[in-house]
């Protein structure tokens, strides 16, 4: 469509407004995390003196460092397993005919619809009985079941776009279904798998409900849950600014992933949701 | 996609296997096995952890059961549901949840549409836009909730001094507290909505818009008569996703108000009954009601969606 220079100027203004909308709250929490002493309560957007004090506080606190370790470890493990299982399942769903296919998709949909809180409370009972309460495994398992539907849908949408003639060609040339999958489809599908991994990581990294219901100590508590319990950690000062610093730290991985892979993430979100 | 159901093999395996040495059937059987081999692990992982808790929640919801008093567990059948549904507090929290859902989703739809239009049309700053949009999407909900809670706080925040509101306590009243929660939610989830809308927007052929422009349609007419009708499917999907999500709001409420000033939502009620008050039976019943409501919303959406789409098709023919 022909666009006049003036119209284009309007769109640029719009773009700048959107960027401001998205970034200002983030800059605010960053700015708060650099405040110190009286600055914290000065009701101004920016600190008068920029200080690393709060970052020193949070990294000196076991509560935060162990939570960070838990979050990173559990998110990576859950993401890896989830994406592997989802890749296999999405391939079967988009390519193979087998009885129960609709059942798998239906269960995936039911899980996305069912409120997390309604799963978390019965799990709390169950985990305490089987000894999984307050352990990494006790969180990784629910992370898996809750992130699988998303990855399956995103990946199934990607797999539908793959030129499957190539798979058939490989099978005509004598490859088995498994060989065709491994040699032809995996390389074609890896961008989609990668996107699914990022989206899964975001979902797991974001978890709060399982984090607060299924943990009771630093052994497995992830960062979002730890932030909510941060109050007890620093008795001397208001924990506001340290919480801000901790919040900034856990936002860094998100920003890095977004900066590196924005195009893929957008493609994954729009494909998976609309076509899946 | 057509579903080819392989003919059900009769009960005598050895005979049939011999009789069915046809290549195609053999392949179909292999395909079926492979299908379950590949999808099975994911299926088990999904069902194992959710199936039992869901059934368990339904079962427990039929008991008067306090975790601290396991011997006092008594079967009350639908008693918990009666207790909840006749309690004014439940309906109040249902109202709060409904208000948050309606307000956030409708604001997000309008705002998200604007965002999608800009992303679709802007020739410059495209990468910066994408990055900026994805930051609220990717950020942890708890972090977003803290950022907004502190921004509105009259002790730490800048909002009051920016708008000259003095010492106004946003978290001191129901409506102002709900407002802050809605702002946080809208900020965090509008990008997701806008991306879904963008996908719909991208599917509208440019010819349509050019034709409308040639025919002298104004910008507003083009939006109303060409763009919106052509992206109905994307709008419905975006609305469905976000409504289901908004109805289960928990994180932001937990962090920003902790349910104070009557800002409790249904998810929060379920959490508080079960975890804090250890009223497992009652809490499970709240969870089940919440799940039923969510399913009802989904069914309603799909119904409207279907009739809407078929009507649309009928118009065109």
What labels describe this entry?
heterodimer, A: 276 residues, MetI-like fold, 0% strand, B: 317 residues, mainly alpha, two-stranded antiparallel sheet, 14 helices, 2 strands, disordered C terminus, cell membrane (chain A), Carbohydrate ABC transporter permease (chain A), BP-dep_ABC_trans_perm (chain A), transport (chain A), transmembrane (chain A)
Describe the 3D structure:
The complex is a heterodimer of chains A (276) and B (317). Chain A is mainly alpha-helical. Chain A contains 11 helices and no strands. Chain A has a single domain (55-275), classed as MetI-like (MetI-like fold, Orthogonal Bundle), CATH 1.10.3720. In chain A, 75% of the residues lie in helices and 0% in strands. In chain A, helix 1 crosses helix 11, helix 2 (53-60) crosses helix 11 and helix 3 (62-95) packs parallel to helix 6. Chain B contains 14 helices and 2 strands; from the N terminus they run ααββαααααααααααα. In chain B, helix 4 (88-121) packs parallel to helix 8 (174-202), helix 4 (88-121) packs antiparallel against helix 11 and helix 11 runs antiparallel to helix 14 (280-316). In chain B, strands 1-2 form a two-stranded antiparallel sheet. Chain B is mainly alpha-helical and 317 residues long. Residues 1-15 and 313-317 of chain B have low confidence and may be disordered. Chain B has a domain at 90-264: Orthogonal Bundle (MetI-like fold). Chains A and B meet through helix 1, helix 3, helix 4, helix 5 and helix 6 of A and helix 2, helix 4, helix 5, helix 6 and helix 7 of B.
